[in-house]
Amino acid sequence: TFITMNVPDPRIFGAASEAYTAEAPDGMFHLVYHGTMAERLGVDLLIRAVAQLRESNPQIRLHLWGNGDDLGSFQRLTHELRIDAAVEFNPKGYPLDELPVRLRTMQLGVVGNRTTVAGDLMLPVKLLEYVALGIPAAVPRLRTIQHYFSDDMVFYYEADNVESLAGCLKRLHCQPQLRRERAE
């Protein structure tokens, strides 16, 4: 028996072969979260942060790829906050072999994990996939993530804090060069 870290399959998520695209051809700022749609993973925090920014930053688009027990409540929350045009749900996600191509069209990967006993111990595989593909990531300041990633590798925001996340996203939207540097 042996223990191994859960990491992206290098045959699928190999080293970034394409240069990071800091600015999307459509002029939008595309954020992505892919995986389980669960409150414990902070997806609602991502939606609320986009809602805070939507009026001052109408170019922001949040792409939520995946399914889970809380998908319906996230769709309702998006509607209640009147940001349906800013959030795109794809409950089926994408086939694993197609995922890297889709992720590379995004300007920022976002992780929303909450501060919980489990959340503080998690190293999200989606974060490792963003890194493997050369996509900058905004992540909560949690113990395990901080153990592996310094402040010059990812963009930190305070966990469970919508204002902190919104501030991080706003800053990154306005600084494509900073995102490009971090991606490298």
Keywords for this entry:
single chain; 184 residues; alpha/beta; 6 strands; 36% helix
State the gist of this model.
Helices cover 36% and strands 14% of the residues.
Question: Could you characterize the architecture of this molecule?
Answer:
The protein is globular. The protein has helices spanning 43-53, 71-80, 99-103, 117-121, 125-133, 143-148, 162-173, 176-183; strands spanning 29-34, 60-65, 87-90, 108-110, 137-140, 155-157. With 184 residues, the chain is an alpha/beta fold. The chain is 36% helix and 14% strand. Helix 1 packs across helix 7 (162-173). Strands 3-2-1-4-5-6 form a six-stranded parallel sheet, with helices on both faces. The N and C termini lie far apart (36 Å).
Order of helices and strands: EHEHEHEHHEHEHH
Uncertain residue ranges: none
Number of H- or I-type helical stretches: 8
Radius of gyration: 15 Å
Biggest pleated sheet: 6 strands, parallel
Please write out the topology.
Blueprint: E1 29-34, H1 43-53, E2 60-65, H2 71-80, E3 87-90, H3 99-103, E4 108-110, H4 117-121, H5 125-133, E5 137-140, H6 143-148, E6 155-157, H7 162-173, H8 176-183
Parallel strand pairs: 1-2, 1-4, 2-3, 4-5, 5-6
Helix pairs in contact: 1-7
